[in-house]
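Researcher: Here's the sequence for the chain we discussed earlier.
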Amino acid sequence: MSAVECPDFEAVFTKAQVLSFEETHNETWGVNRRLMMMTLARSSDQLLAGFADSAEDNGDVLFALIGQISDYSEHLKYGVELAEAAVARLLMVGQFIAEG
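Model: Thanks. This is the structure I predict for it:
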């Protein structure tokens, strides 16, 4: 059995950067997250009734909402990548401690 190498990686963010990211995250993505949740909290009948009048604006409101939720979905994909990188780091450290 081979010895596990000691993990060797640098920090990706500073503590100040993390605090800044967290502060701006809610401002930037909080609205989109709430729009997504409110859409999911509506039945098809409720959505149909709510957007029936959007025919008057050529569906601009509906399409804007779709765009905002799509942007949030893309944002979440990057968040998943960061979470996977964090898990990988913890697994490397844990494996080294367990076998070291």
